[in-house]
Design brief:
The chain folds into two domains: 121 residues, Roll (Urease, subunit C, domain 1); 254 residues, TIM Barrel. 30% of the residues lie in helices and 21% in strands. It contains 13 helices and 15 strands.
């Protein structure tokens, strides 16, 4: 679990040549450009309708500008004159995937991490902590087009108690007033969400289920000021007591697998407090008693219907390998469809973006991913992406997909 203490890397802009190669296929047809925004007609052997849980055969998605204009079986969708037809053959289209727990400034150069994440099919991520507000700078660089990467929803600094789990480089604070001031500073600097550290890691949470690091007054002050500013609060909380108090005080999501008791899980289900499991980041330590207990407990949480949003803690794991999390979700009891919904519909709802992301539907943002094979039959095909579109721009189109 010490991997999260990896050295912070500075943001390095992507070279012009790399950007040119990556976006070579994003140029729309000249006729479409003359008449308005680029128009694409994307054909695929099937499309996963994540809301209905069905596969649409011989699917066509019409994209105009950054929005989906029409979607359905080929026989029922009119392809506009001048549209560029992108034939993906027998591939399966799914919505752009969403990872709600990454650290793009950890584990290498931030620009490379962002590009690897996008090319892996994750068109939206939530960055939950960095030093020196580097994650906010990265978000803004991507928004300007200086760096190629996913859409980023970003916290600022980790917020935790001095001497605690998230006191990286001495950024921890003490006392409710100091916690409230940090929230206000994060908001002033442009943070989209507040990341709060409540407990230690799995070994401590297993050995000391009633322990958590911060005081109740510090927790209350953080949530109060964040919600007053219209910001969600996501907590690092693993111990039974830590999750209980965080949920009771009104947090919006709990990062990492955890030891929540049955009453807390029931409250999370009732109030739609999300858990972001990050199972793959724990998978290298499967032999210890605390790791075995954690995975067994999460299996029971899934069975009891705790709301799940997909997250990986990428930066602790390799950026671009995010889709390996799906296999862990299934091994702990989810169906393939439930796991995919965690990274689409559920994740979009957690981020407050369900009106525009999370499904391939007319009117939504044109974030599309294609994989070779059927992810309902074999979830690992989500690790083998062959096409990525973000905001109506093609950023990956493998040569094997001829046109």
């Amino acid at each position: 679990m010490n991997a999260i203490r990896m050295i912070h890397r500075s943001i390095v802009p992507v070279g012009a040549a790399a950007i040119g190669l990556l976006l070579l296929a994003s140029v729309g047809p000249s006729r479409a450009e003359q008449d308005g925004p680029p128009v694409y007609a994307i054909r695929a052997g099937r499309l996963l309708d994540v809301r209905r849980g069905v596969l649409v055969p011989q699917a066509v998605v019409v994209v105009r500008g950054d929005r989906i204009a029409a979607v359905g079986e080929a026989s029922g969708v009119r392809i506009p004159a001048g549209a560029e037809v992108v034939d993906l053959g027998d591939a399966t289209l799914v919505p752009g995937l969403i990872d709600t727990h990454v650290h793009l400034t950890l584990g290498g150069a931030a620009d490379s991490n962002a590009r690897a994440t996008l090319l892996a099919g994750f068109t939206t991520v939530q960055d939950l902590g960095a030093l020196g507000y580097a994650n906010l700078a990265l978000r803004d660089a991507v928004n300007r087009g200086d760096i190629v990467g996913p859409r980023i929803v970003s916290a600022g600094l980790w917020l935790g108690v001095s001497g605690g789990t998230c006191d990286f480089g001495g950024i921890g604070v003490r006392g409710p007033d100091a916690f409230a001031r940090r929230v206000r500073e994060d908001v002033a600097r442009g943070a989209d969400v507040i990341k709060l550290c409540v407990t230690g890691w799995v070994d401590d949470a297993f050995a000391n289920p009633h322990r958590y690091e911060i005081s109740d007054s510090e927790l209350v002050a953080t949530i109060r000021d964040a919600h007053a500013a219209g910001k969600r609060v996501i907590v690092h909380a693993i111990s039974e007591a830590g999750v209980r108090v965080a949920v009771a005080r009104g947090v919006d999501a709990v990062a990492h697998a955890n030891f929540a008791d049955s009453a807390t899980v029931a409250s999370m289900r009732e109030r739609l407090v999300w858990v972001i499991p990050t199972l793959h980041s724990f998978s290298r330590d499967t032999a210890s008693a605390h790791a075995r207990a954690l995975f067994a407990h999460m299996t029971e949480e899934f069975r009891r219907g705790v709301p799940v949003a997909f997250g990986t803690d990428a930066g602790v794991i390799r950026h671009g390998s995010n889709a390996r999390e799906f296999g862990h979700l299934i091994r702990l009891g989810m169906t393939s469809l439930e796991a995919i919904r965690a990274a689409t519909l559920n994740a979009a709802e957690l981020l407050g973006m369900a009106d525009r992301l999370g499904a391939v539907e007319a009117g939504k943002v044109a974030d599309l991913v294609a994989v070779s094979g059927n992810p309902l039959d074999d979830i690992t095909v989500l690790e083998r992406v062959v096409f990525v579109m973000r905001d109506g721009r093609i950023v990956r189109r493998d040569g094997a997909l001829g046109r």
